[in-house]
Amino acid sequence: MKRWIWNSNQPVDFNLAKWTIIFMIIVGLLHKFIANDIPILAKSESGLTMPVVQDYLYDLGFSQRNPHMASIHYDPLINPIIHKSAYNTDIDKILLKPMNEGHILGTDALGRDVLSGLIHGTTTAVMVSIGAVALALIIALIIGVISGFYYQRPIRLNFAQISIAVIIIMMVLPYVITELTSTRTNLLIILLPVLIGLGIWKLSNPVLGKLKMKKWEVHLHRYTDRIIEVREAIPTIFLILGAIALFRDNSIWNVALVIGLIGWGSLSRYIRAEVMKIREKTYIDAAIVQGQSTWRIITRHILPNALDPLLSIITFSFTAAILLEATLSFLGIGIPSEAPTWGSLLAQARVANAWWLAIFPGFCIFLAIASLNTIADYLQRRLDVRIKN
Amino acid sequence: MLIFVLKRLVSTLWTLVLVMLVSFFLIQLAPGDKAEAILNVQGIRMGEDDNQSYLLQYEALREEYGLNKPSFYLSFIPSYKNHSFPPHWQSRHSMLAHNLLNEKVPFNIVRVYINALDKLEKECQDQSLAFCNREIRFLWELTDQDDINQRLNRIEQATNFPLATLKQTSERLSSRTVLYFPVIKWNGLNNQFHNRITNIIKMDFGISVVDGDAVTNKIASALIWTLVLTFATLFLSLLLGIPLSIYSVNSGVVAKRIIGTSMNIIYATPVFWLATILIVFFTTPEYGRWTDIFPGSMFKPGDYSGWWDSLSNNSGMLILPVFCLTLSSLPIIVRITRRSIISESVEPYITALRARGLTERSIFRRHIIPNALMPIVTLISNSLPSAMAGTLIVEVIFNIPGMGRLMYDSLSSYDWDVCFTIILLMSVVTSGVFAIADVIYYQINPKMKVV
């Protein structure tokens, strides 16, 4: 994986795409140093201060003082390159054309600077796509690995084991359901019964397994396949629109959560297929014969070998997440309305009939998607070459 | 064969029941219910003074639509919520109790607090203090301790009621239940989910809260537009995509490069960016006379005598949406067809045909193309559901009254019956198409198994 990405003799388009994505991530993480209306370094009564750093600390919850609200007067020493806030609205300066009054890419319908809005939008895209893909990957791994590993290989359990499993599920499920639907969700109350249930299962299983009873075949993959099928039966965008309506408040984390909880469909099918392929290899049979535990086989033998083929499909799911985030903010759903994003800036173009709002935000989305697609295509090609060799 | 079809049918039905369950609970969890939406459409909102009449109307509507029934056959009630309220409590009492219990406040504290509040209200009404009455109306809706204390302090300043006991109880509202047991309760067949399923079997999908029209009527008129868009797109993209991929396979390096690169660029272009650019630049004369070449995106309102009339009167505005959708689905078709032609042309039987002395032209026309187009059938079956879903954003942008537009509008007006039916219809189409595709596969490869 490292060899693939940091190799020196790679095609030009891949290198371009790679550096575009790295540039976008850096801009997204450091957007306050690049476009902001408060200075990076300033002189105040108490000496030198760094208001932007304080702003970051305030956002992360480490600092109590908001530099935007600070009453202390300071003399700016170093200002960000784009000395405009993405949030500040100005009624006198709505829909300025580019290169007017210091607004390099003009202003939008609320008088906000478009360039700093785009930089802020990069943050939203990076945050939402990373959060959503991480969550989707966790769900897809759980479902895909169970589906692929146990495909047509039922686990054999006797009556006592099945009844203990049913009892545990009946004990744990009510806690999970009541706590998830409660207004005051306490993750500990979900985690604790799950852990206790798993512990009871682990402890009782070896004892109960020795009982001489009739054994039943349990096809785990049937249940997970059904979950995948149900998920795929509802078109993603409709399901996401329905799920976003659950939240009364808008925040980018809600959007990431919903995209992650819903966007695992195709990812899990690829993981399932890949795990199924590796499961047939003889070294897995050898590991089973050695008596290694299922957990160890999955984490040590299957997942490391499945990672390389999955890289390109994971890259594609970043594309899908960015596209979904842009679609949602274009429709004005989910993302807070005061936060400028690529999609919300683009949506203004239609109403305001402003060409700069039509071109630049759309080009940012295009650039991100095109770069990710190029990377994914390249990874796929490298994989095909490796398989042929 | 028959057994396979039956098995596949049962599997599809199972999936649809689970889809119903998922979408039903999605709607149950969403804030606001049908009664609230109906009152909202009628312009009746929680006001400052007529809260009591609002709550009465709300309760009556909930009774009418069966919303106060349990939602499912089983319910998991956490023990901190499993209490029966005293019979003399009115709806405002039980509403506040519900809200406080949802915040995990223990029930004995809730009861003491509500009784104290009730007493205060009676005292206020006896002395007929308008300010106090208004403040107490707010107190019936507050659960946050700081807000409650603020209101109580204001009452204390304005009047000279002894509020010490009430304040003491409100202090205790900050305590929370930590450990609890969930109670599993069997609700019988008279629940909302059961009623909905029986209604669906009777083909009764409910009534839209916005205009009182039957959901089936609304969806039928919207479905026409989506189907026209979808099939026009599919037809045009196949008509363009297949010749383009055949041409790109047979052409020289430069043409291949150009087609490949342009397809990559189109593939990365979000359809809403394309649509916005087309609207901004090509529907107004702002950027020169020649740019005003397409009709605008406005749906002409008016009385149409049926869907065909409204379609033919507005067909001009379908040009841009169909263009956008066709362009966005073109790269996938070109990519799959091209790959299929290339993989077919290295098969051994092509070499055998070449050895027999057939011309390259006739091999390509008679043998490669017919075999390579087989995956296109699968492609159509797979892309039909996603094409229907893909029209959503285009319909919203171009103001076309199709399914996507209907879903978007219904969500913003909390019209849950319409949303539920649209999601159900979409999943019926999707799983139906997948099932038909599976049956076709089975005829080719009878070893296949039903999941």
Radius of gyration of chain A: 26 Å
Q: What do the pLDDT scores of chain A average to?
A: 86
Helix content of chain A: 55-70%
The assigned structural class of chain B equals: mainly alpha
**Largest inter-chain contact set:** A-B, 55 and 61 residues
Please give the number of β-strands of chain A. Answer: 5
Low-confidence stretches of chain A: none
State the helix count of chain B. 19
Strand order of the largest sheet of chain A: 2-1-3
Sheet-strand content of chain B, in percent, reads under 5%
Give keywords.
heterodimer, A: 389 residues, mainly alpha, 3-stranded antiparallel β-sheet, two-stranded antiparallel ribbon, 15 helices, 5 strands, elongated, B: 451 residues, two-stranded antiparallel sheet, 19 helices, 2% strand
Structural account:
- Chain A has 389 residues and is mainly alpha-helical.
- Chain A has 15 helices and five strands.
- Chain A has a three-stranded antiparallel sheet, with no helix packed on it. A two-stranded antiparallel sheet of chain A has the order 4-5.
- In chain A, helix 10 (252-262) crosses helix 13 (294-331) and helix 13 (294-331) runs parallel beside helix 14 (342-352).
- With 451 residues, chain B is mainly alpha-helical.
- Chain B is built from 19 helices and two strands.
- At the A-B interface, helix 6, helix 8, helix 9, helix 13 and helix 14 of A face helix 1, strand 1, helix 11, helix 12 and helix 17 of B.
